[in-house]
Amino acid sequence: MTRSLDHSTDQVTNSISFGKMEVPKESNIKKLEEAVKYMLDDEEKVREKMHDSIHTCSLYFTLLRQHGYEVSAYIFENFKDHNGNFKASLSQDVMGMLSLYEASHFAYKGEIILDEARKFTSTKLKEMLGKIDMEIGAQVRHALEIPFQCRMQRLEARWNIEAYNKKDGANQLLLKLAILDFNMVQSMLQRDLQQVSCWWKDVGLANKLGFARDRLMESFFWSVGMVFQPEFSECRKGLTKVAKLITIIDDVYDVYGSLEELEQFTDAVERWDINALQHLPDYMKICFLALYNTVNNMAYDVLKEQGHVILPQLTKVWADLCKLFLKEAKWSYSNHIPKFEEYLSNGWISSSGPLLLVHAYFLMSQNITNEAIQSFNTYPSLLRFPSTIFRLSNDLSSSKAEIERGETANAISCYMHENGVSEEVAREYITSLIDENWKMMNKELVSNSLFDKSFLEIAVNLARIAQCHYQYGNAHSDPNDVTRNRVLSVIIEPIQLKTQQPIWTN
């Protein structure tokens, strides 16, 4: 049965829209499969439609790359003039410009045409603001702030549901389904939060370590950003525990511990020996024991349920993190400013991104492989790219506060010191590095991988939550009203249906 091209385009548009609202997978997967099948079965007609419409071309490109299909960026060459520039007439199509802008953020490194597309659409979309209707203008401002590919999924789902709720002619059945699903998932997240709150209270670190940040909600929000699906509840709770321990240990190294104490703690973690407790000061004893017990319990659960011995991998990533925390503490004590490359080669691991991802793999995977376990010993690219985005996003938001505290090692300060440039120039360079790592990660997602799609998505989500978390400052150390409202909208406050029209009919 032959489908019309317009119908296929509608399928693609709906699939992307449903995905942005996180409509239940069963509903969206069927539509996605139909749209992709049409594209693959009748490529000639699809190319004909792409030739005519920048909006259609961008939608197809986005959908295919988003779901791991290789598609060449040269399909956009048709929309250039004889001088090699994008045609000026394209700017008359607002949705086409917006779709091309979003598509450009699925670029791989070296795809110059997508760099040109991003620059072209960014300029044109900014010029359009104030001249287009409010509904489309809101979409444009939202995308220019952070594109869809880089946004935290759960926060983006809520934004799109609420935007769709205000739309004239919205499909009320679809809207109801999206809202019900969002609120049901949210109620499950609340149960997870309640359970992990009991764990945090029992551990007692907040009461014993008055100097440390007590940021359980922020840690849970971070874990939701990495993995929100109900079926990964245990992974989410485990990641929250890990994030809390990272925060406490980070504060020990950054704020409270003397250099001698930090060396003792690092040695204890590296040896993973309970007998090391006797050599630690009291505040470090409870910290080490909480870490020791939590990680050992996680390793035990995996051994019991799946038969894999993962304790060596877990203890290695914790030892590596503490050794790099110690190195950074020594830089601070001696007022040393390292070379930028030295800083970054240390910093992407000390961001704690690799540690979080290694734990996530073992906590969520039902198909742990020996190849994947061994790969963690050398920190594969799938861990490096999002962790670098994590580190650089953190530094962009925290550099001023860290310099005021006397911390000399930061991507901004290191680049300024080494190259003799202004803070503005350094920030522009760091921003460009974040973009480069997104491109390399986009390519990683369509390459042959040791890991399944669920873990690939978690790796991307680490970068997404990092950019969200540090967008308006450091949401972990100093949450403001914007970050608090984000936490509430994802975890606490359900979505209210604002229509008065009946949803169900007999």
Automatic annotation (TrEMBL):
Residues 32-144 form the Terpene synthase N-terminal domain. Residues 201-439 form the Terpene synthase metal-binding domain. InterPro entries: Isoprenoid_synthase_dom_sf, Terpene_cyclase-like_1_C, Terpene_cyclase_plant_C1, Terpene_synth_N, Terpene_synth_N_sf, Terpene_synthase-like, Terpene_synthase_metal-bd, Terpenoid_cyclase/PrenylTrfase. Keywords: Magnesium, Metal-binding. It holds the Pfam family Terpene_synth. The keyword Isomerase does not apply. GO terms for molecular function: catalytic activity; metal ion binding. The keyword Metal-binding applies. Its cofactor is Mg(2+). This is Terpene synthase 02. It comes from Forsythia ovata.
